[in-house]
Amino acid sequence: DVQRSLVLVKPDGVRRGLSGEILRRIEAKGYTLAAVELRQATPEILAAHYAEHEGKPFYEPLVEFMLSGPVLAVVIEGQRCIEGFRSLAGATDPTVAAPGTIRGDLGRDWGLAVQQNLVHGSDSEESAAREIGIWFSGLG
Ligand code: CMP
Fold first, then answer.
1. What is the distance between the alpha carbons of residues 37 and 64, in angstroms, rounded to a whole number?
2. Could you give the residue numbers annotated as active site?
3. Ligand 1: which of 10, 115, 134 to mutate, judged by most atoms within 8 Å of the beta carbon?
């Protein structure tokens, strides 16, 4: 199945100048960039995007981190790209993410309240449709 997935280069990735490297890995894998936009998130966008994490201990610091600078919002396209991008991204915790992955090669623990783990990728077709609609209204 050709899928679309919503990928975010989080504020740590943009700040560190890794947007190009991350897009390069997505394109080198063979996925297409269907939309790319540098955006400042808003509390409303993040409340929708992270609705499932509301109430968790890391929720407030997560929202604060995601508001700390612009994010690169990206829609990628390709066969099984949802699973494929999560494989490219690596485990949530960059300390243990496998070498070869975005988080494993480029990320580490900075001792902060939230895992600053460079990227987000949708975890299912349902989340992808929902998240693309949040970040790119009209594209969902
Ligand atoms: P993401 O895939 O964007 O979804 C939720 C985010 O919360 C996750 O990436 C991390 O940035 C962060 N996160 C998830 N679990 C934890 C945790 N246990 N402690 C701190 N931050 C977390």
1. 20
2. 120
3. 115
Distance CA 123, CA 57 (A): 21
Q: Report DSSP state, residue 122.
A: -
Is a pLDDT exceeding 70 seen at residue 139?
Answer: no
CB-side exposure of 22: number of CA atoms within 13 Å?
A: 33
Cβ–ligand 1 distance for 49 under 6 Å, the answer no
- Which domains, from first to last, does the chain contain? 2-135 (3.30.70.141)
ipTM: 0.91
pTM for the whole structure: 0.96
Share of the chain above pLDDT 70, in %: 98
